[in-house]
Amino acid sequence: MSFVSVRNVWQRYGDRSILERVSVTAEEGEFVSIVGASGCGKSTFLRMLLAEERPYKGEISIEGGATAVEPNRERGVVFQKYSVFPHLTVRDNLMAAEGFQTRFGRLRGAARKEAAARADQMLTRIGLSHVAQQFPASLSGGMQQRLAIGQALTAKPRILLLDEPFGALDPGTRLQMHDFLMELRDETNMTVFMVTHDLEEAFKLGDRVLVFDKPRWDPQDPNVIGATITYDFDARHGGMPHQDILDHFPSLAAG
Ligand SMILES: Nc1ncnc2c1ncn2[C@@H]1O[C@H](COP(=O)(O)OP(=O)(O)OP(=O)(O)O)[C@@H](O)[C@H]1O
C-alpha cells in the first residue's frame, strides 16, 4: 500500500474541467516536484491533497485512509501557503506551529520554554531573528516566504505541501533555503509535494518530477479538457536532465 494514493481524480469548476484522470502514488519520504504551465491545476491538486477541496470524482488516500474532511494539521499535512497567521508576531507564528503538535493545541510550562528556544533557533536558520517581534504584514515578500517555510517546517509535518515556496527569494537565499529544506527532510523523513516553475529546482530537490499538462486540446472549447499527469520523471540517479525536458516541452519554460 502506498503512503499517498491518488486514484483517477477529476476536478471541475462549473463547466470547466481543470483536472482529469489524475492517478499517482508516492511513498513516505519521497520528494515529488510538480511542474506545468500556468493555470493547469497544480495548486488545485495540492488543495485536494490537503482536503481543502474534494475531487469532483476519484479518490485520494493517505496511509490507506481518506484525507481529512477539513484541512487538519493533526493529520500531518501542512500547506506552506496558508501557514502564517497575520495577527501573530513572527516568533509567535513559529510557536503556534509547535502548538499544533500538542493534543490541545497549546504549550505550557517547560514545553513552552523549549518551544521558544526552538523558535529562536528556527528564526536564526531562516534569517529572521531581527524581526522576531514584528507582524508578518510588515515583512518583505521574501521574508514572508521564509517565515511561511519556517513555520510549516516547525510543525514537522508528515506531508509538506509547498506551492512555489522560493519564488520571491533572491538567488543566494534561495540556495540557502534549498539546503535547509533538504536537511530538515533528512531529519524528519517527511513526504514533500512541491509546485515550482523552476525546472532546475524541480530536478535538484525532487526524487521525481511530475509534469501536469493537457493531453489534448479542443480548439472549439479549450475548457472542456482538463490537465493530467503526462510525465513522471525519475530525478535521481541521473534521471532525464531538465534541459531535455525543456526541448520537449518549451511551454514549461514560460511557466
Ligand atoms: N475555486 C475556484 N473556482 C473556480 N475556478 C478556479 C478555482 N480555483 C482555481 N480555479 C481555476 O482553475 C484553474 C487552475 O488553477 P490552479 O491555481 O490550480 O493552477 P496552477 O497550475 O497552480 O497555476 P499557476 O501555475 O499559475 O499557479 C485556473 O484557471 C483557475 O482560475
From TrEMBL:
Gene3D superfamilies: P-loop containing nucleotide triphosphate hydrolases. It is an enzyme of class 3 (hydrolase). One of its GO terms (molecular function) is ATP binding. Transmembrane segments: none annotated. The keyword Hydrolase applies. Keywords: ATP-binding, Hydrolase, Nucleotide-binding, Transport. InterPro entries: AAA+_ATPase, ABC_SmlMolc_Importer, ABC_transporter-like_ATP-bd, ABC_transporter-like_CS, P-loop_NTPase. Pfam families: ABC_tran. The gene is cmpC_1. Residues 4-239 form the ABC transporter domain. This is Bicarbonate transport ATP-binding protein CmpC. It comes from the Bacteria. Its EC number is 3.6.3.-.
